[in-house]
Design brief:
- This protein is of the alpha+beta class.
- The chain is 49% helix and 13% strand.
- The chain has 9 helices and 6 strands, in the order αβααββααβααββαα.
- The strands form 2 sheets. A 3-stranded antiparallel beta sheet has the order 1-3-2.
- α2 packs across α3 and α5 packs across α7.
- The longest helix is centred in the N-terminal third of the chain and has 17 residues.
- The radius of gyration is 19 Å and the shape is globular.
- The C terminus is likely disordered.
Amino acid sequence: MGNNEIAAAVEAILFASGEPVPADRIAIVLGVELSDVLAAAENLKEDYIARESGIRLLRMEDKLQLCSAPLYSQTITMALEQRKPPRLSPAALEVLAIVAYFQPVTRAYIDQVRGVDSSYTVGVLTERGLIEPCGRLDVPGRPTLYGTSEVFLRTMNISSLDQLPALPDVATDEGVIALQNKIEQLQSGVLEGQISLSDTEQG
């Protein structure tokens, strides 16, 4: 298959799926190398951006997905008569940050870091699909381990956890302020189209 054919096939598969599709599965189906699929996906991604298309191609670890451009999130919401999701609460942001940067973690670990019970917020984030169980810790009681999900990567518009911003050194006052600024930026909607939780949630 030529490069244009591969790109067209990748686009068709992702459009029809509507869900993340493993790049290696696409390569097997098309009978081409994985590198060819990833190159085609990157070309499609750049082409959508260059044309200011309403479509974006996301790479999440080893999977690919088509989605709408964040610029049109409000337009889509109005057109489909969907209620805009509320923002992430401070408690939800804290828990999400802990899971994202220190995963896999148990709820007890999250409670220890925050100093309060986090069972409700962990449950809500799990229900929303931003975090998910990823195993059990090999200790008595075998508590559940949590990690971030594909929804988290898509929400944050990143391909892998390596693209997360560096975690400030919270051992210093400057680090605490920097972390708080990042949280406030998230709450103010800097990441357009993010999936979020109610401002009224408690820990």
